[in-house]
Amino acid sequence: MNPRRVALASFIGNAIELYDFFLYGMAAALVFGEVFFPNLSPLNATLAAFSTHAVAFLARPVGSILFGHFGDRVGRKSVLVASLLLMGLSTALVGLLPGYATLGNWAPVLLVLLRLLQGLGIGGEWGGAVLLAVEHAPRGRRGLYAAFPQLGPPVGFAAATGVFWLLSSSLDDAAFTNWGWRVPFLLSFLLVAVGLVVRLKISETPVFARAVAQREASRAPVTELIRRHPRELLLGAGAMAVVYGLFYTSMTYGLSYTTTTLGVERDTMLALSLVACLFLAAGIWVAATRSDGLGRRRLILAGCGLATVWGLLLFPLLDTGRPALIALALGGALFCVGVASGPMGAFLPELFPARVRYSGAALSYNLGGVLGGGLSPLVIPRLQAGLGSVSIGWYLSALALLSLTCVLALPETRERELV
Questions:
Q1: Is 71 exposed, middle or buried (0-12, 13-18, 19+ CB in 10 A)?
Q2: Which of 23, 75, 306, 343 has the most beta carbons within 10 angstroms of its beta carbon?
Q3: DSSP letter at 205?
Q4: Residues 393 and 312: beta-carbon distance below 8 Å
């Protein structure tokens, strides 16, 4: 099958699943506290909403193990279809879930359950999407082809932000809180159908087909991964920490912080978030495509170094409350994320052999999500409340240094054969 068509298909499917995943973070920042936790104080409602958001990051490694097992034994394509169904349907059901006023304590319980299902689904998505592109790509162009699924997050986030922005700007606060926020979730029913059509048309990767033909598929991929490749697994997870931490701090907590604490208009922040997505896409594309010539490791290190500096600048710029400086803060943060994450689409799969590649890439990617994306939304509101926003900058810079150290301990991979 034409590698370009496969890269495009992996991009479309990944963008749909990331749209679903990002919707929840935006709703947690904007309305979930009021809809599902109205009996709590504003701070505790925010913490509760972000706690449900963090649940998915705990489920993501479990999803990686589950889908990685079958992805390394059965194939990449069929597992990706299953992850799309699980992710899309659980997202759509959030849009149908009654709030606390109707169900009482059952409402947040069911919300957490659906978020867990989202986490399981997304845990298997990224690894399969990048493997489709990388294992079909010609040698010397894997960074370019992996750039396509890596563009799924900015496109998915932009789509989620755009839909929320349209609804927020066209509805009054009462209508948006009562029913408007549900519309983006219900759109997932349609997007699942689109994603299925795209994914059912692609073929299995030649690398996996060859492993099956030669009877080289692992019988217990995760066990083999942990026994033979623990160093690559843990260092890969550490390398991803700043990507998650900086992204979710700026785009999820930052949205809540600016609209509630600083009093910036919700519509303004959603529009600025859309602008920031352009910086994320630019960083991903530049770094991913250049990594075929300059090396994955060098560009990821550059992204981590930039993030170390920008972590300290993010909240001083946000605290000005001025839209132009907020746009600079968010755009700069997401550009750093893009540079650090762009080459990861090729780098993490290249760290592992075909027998355990799905499990290794997916699990390292999502363990990094636990550290950076799951922990940060819980720690950062407490840091801000207790020590002020300057402490958040030091936290983000520490994450960036952790990731930089992990990347330094890993080898360059662009010349490796995918065997």
A1: buried
A2: 343
A3: P
A4: yes
Q: Are 361 and 27 in contact (CB under 8 A)?
A: no
Contact 307, 337 (CB under 8 A): yes
Question: What secondary structure does DSSP assign to 63-82, as a single string?
Answer: HHHHHHHHHHHT-HHHHHHH
Whether residue 385 contacts residue 260, with contact meaning beta carbons closer than 8 Å, is answered with no
9 C-beta neighbours (distance < 10 Å), count: 26
50, 52, 53, 58: CA torsion to nearest 10:
120
DSSP state of 352: S
pLDDT in tens, 15-25: 988 898 888 88
**Which residues are CB-neighbours of 162 under 8 A, at least 6 positions away?**
274
- Return the amino acid letter for 327: A
Contacts of 44 (CB under 8 A, 6+ apart): 37
Question: What integer pLDDT is reported at residue 339 of this predicted model?
Answer: 98
Residue type, 188: S
Closest CA to 10 of 191, 285, 282, 198: 198
What does the alpha-carbon distance between residue 198 and residue 65 come to, in Å, rounded to a whole number? 25
Inter-axis angle of helices 106-136 and 3-30, to 10 degrees?
160
Token couple for 128: 């399969």
84-98, 198-212, 223-237: least confident range: 198-212
Q: How many CB atoms lie within 10 A of CB 142?
A: 30
